[in-house]
Design brief:
By secondary structure, the protein is an alpha/beta fold. The protein has helices spanning about 15-25, 50-55, 65-75, 90-95, 105-115, 130-135, 135-140, 150-165, 180-185, 200-205, 215-230; strands at about 5-10, 40-45, 80-85, 120-125, 145-150, 190-195, 215.
Length: about 240
């Protein structure tokens, strides 16, 4: 029996992103049998209100349900928590209240990853809430990395990709000019793209763009969680 720490996932933001994160934990763990894997608890709490609506439009407060998830996972035996939503990290401090276990911070983990890559300028593709709240801007600037964002016109394309397509289960993106967004990011000096919404890596796997390197914060967070749990981490190049 392994002695790995148990990972708890605060999920439901959205459900597809939740299980994508869990799958990436499995994919990044060296395991030859069931017992070599990390114990993972998932609270797919679809009662958590939309984070962007709360931040920008006075929508329902997501914090009460996020905190309930954190408390449930700690009570169930989680040793560390991760959140399957970038925008949710705007409420990070509130989630940490009332629990005694650590919560890994996806934007900060991503900023450190980019720092290790010697990136100086990063293009942030994310929800309006993530972009305007500074969730990534603050983490990147603290690491000495310049964030750049899409124009208002291009940001509408990203929001449609997230909400009208992936969250709605529509994985045909032919009606969206994603190439124009990537070109704009390149023109603004981005060396890499941060796929800063947990729906975006799934979309970009299908889109398959090769103009700019793309960093998947979900993958970065999964790897950080595997390391925290004490399990052997697969070589990133594999």
């Amino acid at each position: 029996m392994n002695s790995y720490k148990t990972i708890g996932i605060i999920g439901g933001m959205g459900p597809l992103a939740t299980y994508d994160l869990a799958e990436k934990i499995l994919d990044n763990t060296v395991a030859a049998c069931d017992q070599d894997n990390i114990p993972v608890l998932i609270d797919c709490n679809t009662r958590i209100a939309d984070r962007t609506a709360a931040i920008l439009h006075g929508g329902a407060d997501p914090r009460p349900e996020m905190k309930k998830s954190a408390e449930r996972l700690e009570t169930a035996g989680a040793d560390v928590l991760i959140m399957a939503c970038n925008t949710a990290h705007y409420f990070y401090d509130s989630v940490c209240e009332g629990i005694s276990i650590p919560v890994l911070h996806m934007p900060r983990e991503t900023a450190q990853h980019l720092l290790d890559m010697n990136v100086k300028t990063a293009g942030v593709l994310a929800t309006d809430g993530t972009c305007q709240s500074g969730v990534y801007g603050n983490a990147l600037e603290e690491a000495g990395i310049k964030p750049v964002y899409p124009s208002e016109e291009k940001q509408k394309i990203i929001m449609s990709l997230i909400y009208d397509h992936v969250k709605a289960g529509i994985m045909d993106f032919s009606d969206l000019d994603i190439d124009s967004v990537i070109s704009e990011m390149q023109e603004k000096g981005a060396e890499v793209l941060i796929l800063g919404c947990t729906e975006l890596p799934m979309a970009f796997d299908i889109i398959g763009q090769k103009v700019l390197p793309a960093v998947d914060p979900t993958e970065v967070l999964a790897r950080a969680a595997v390391s925290f749990a004490g399990a052997p981490l697969k070589d990133e190049s594999k």
